[in-house]
Amino acid sequence: MELTISIILGFMIIGAIYALHAKDLLSAVMAMGIVGYGLVICFLLLKAPDLAIVQIVVETITLVIMVAVVLDSTREELAITLDRRAILQMIAGFIVFAGLFYFFILAIEHLDPLGAHTLRMSETYVNGAVELTGSVNLVTGVLFDFRAYDTLGEAVILYTAALGVLTLLRIKGKK
Amino acid sequence: MEGMSTIVKRVTPLLAGLIFLYGIYIILHGHLTPGGGFAGGAIIAGAFILLILAFGSSALNLKKEVAGSSNTESIALLMVVVLALMALLFGTKVFFFNYLPKGEPGELLSAGVIPLYNIFIGIEVAGAILTIFLALVIFKEESSK
What we know:
The structure holds two protein chains of two kinds.
Chain A: H1 2-21, H2 25-45, H3 49-72, H4 84-108, H5 120-133, H6 138-146, H7 148-168
Chain B: H1 6-28, H2 37-55, H3 62-85, H4 114-144
Helix pairs in contact in B: 1-2, 2-4, 3-4
C-alpha cells in the first residue's frame, strides 16, 4: 500500500510542478485538479472515507470556481523578469528549503512506521467513543462531542467567509 | 452567465434531485456511516451549483436567492449555538453537552444531539457555499454590464 501511495504522491508532485510552470492558466488549474483528486485516492487508501467525501466535493466546487475565474479574466501567465531581487529571493528560499529538509531527515528516524503511531488520548477516543457518545461513526463522535468547539469554529469561519465575500464583492449599494 | 445546451438542461434536473437526496442521506446517517454535516452540506450546495451552471443566472432572481441562502445559514448557525446552550436547561453546565438519551448505538435515532448538530451544520455549510457562489455570480453579472 505504501508503494501505491508513493506512486500517487509522485503524480501529485508532478501535477503541482506543472501547475507552477504551465504557460496556459487553464491547464494549470486542471493540473491542480490532479493534486486534489490524487489526495482523494490517498485518503481512501488510508481508510479515511469521511475526509475523502469532503475533499472530492470541495475540490470539484473550487475547480468550477477557478475555471470560471480563468475563463473570465485571462488565460496567459504573467511574464516573470529575473532581476537581482528575484535571484536573492530564490537563494533565500533554497537555503530555507535545505535547512527544513535536513531537519526532516533528522526527525523522520524517530518516527514509528506509517499507521503505527497512536497517542494515549486517541486510544481512549478509539476505545470508548461509542459508549461515551452513542455514535457508531467515530469521526462524527469526535467532531460533535469531544471536539465540538472545533466544529463550531469551523462553521463560524465558513460563515465569516460568506459574509466577507458578500461584503467585498458588492458593487451597487443597498437602497 | 448563460445556460448550457438543451441536452444538459434535460439531464441536470434528473441528476440534481439524486445528488440532493444523497446529501440528505449523508447528513442524516452522519453518526452511522462516513460523512456528516460538512460533507452532506457541501454535496447539497453542489446540487444547487449544478442547477445554476446548467440553466444560467437569468433563470432565477439572484438577489432574492442570495438573501435566502444567507438568512438560512445564519439561522442554522444560530440554531447550533442554541442547541449547545439548551444543556443549561437540562441541569448541566457544560457547553456542547450530549443531554438527550443516547439510545441503541447503530440505530438511526441514536447518539443524542449529534444528529441534530449534523443537520444544522449541514444546512449552514450548504448555505455558506451557495452564498459564496451566488455572490461571485452576481459580481460577474454586475461588472459585465
